[in-house]
Each structure stands twice: as C-alpha cells, then as structure tokens.
Design goal:
Length: 89
C-alpha cells in the first residue's frame, strides 16, 4: 500500500512541476489561471497523501484550508477576468 501511495505522490510531484512551468510560460492569462488551479489541487492531493504516508493527521487540516483558499483564488481571478480590471490599470 505504501508503495502505491509513494508512486502516486511522485506522479503528483511531476504534475505540480508541469503546472509551475505552465504558470511561468503560459501564453495567456487563462492558461496561467488554469495552471494555478492545477497546482492548488495537486498541492492538496500531495498534502493528503503525505498525511497518510507520514501519519500526520494535522496536515489534513492544512489541506482543507488550502482547498478553500484555492477556491477563493479561482473566484477572484475569474471575477477579475470578467470585469476586465487588472493591477496595471
């Protein structure tokens, strides 16, 4: 069971790194926003897997808080895109 969880964690790390690359190299704001969502979701999954592998139940609470923050960030970014405002204006 631990071997499967370790392999899943490695796959999530690869996904996280690819998401970070897309954030920095994304051709458009929409691509960057989707990559931010990907990295947030991946970070939650990695925290949950680490909590099981390392027997640290407190990290489940951290993962839940991160999930809520990712949802709020997605709402803020979509609202910003909808109104067309930016920090540069």
């Amino acid at each position: 069971m631990n071997t499967f969880l370790s392999i899943a964690l490695m796959v999530l790390i690869v996904s996280f790194v690819l998401g970070l690359i897309r954030i920095f190299l994304g051709p458009s704001t929409e691509d960057r926003m989707m990559a931010i969502q990907l990295t947030g979701t991946t970070a939650v999954a990695m925290l949950l897997l680490c909590s099981v592998l390392l027997n640290m139940p407190a990290s489940i609470d951290v993962a839940l808080v991160l999930a809520v923050l990712a949802a709020v960030a997605a709402l803020a970014l979509s609202r910003q895109q909808q109104t067309g405002t930016s920090q540069d204006d």
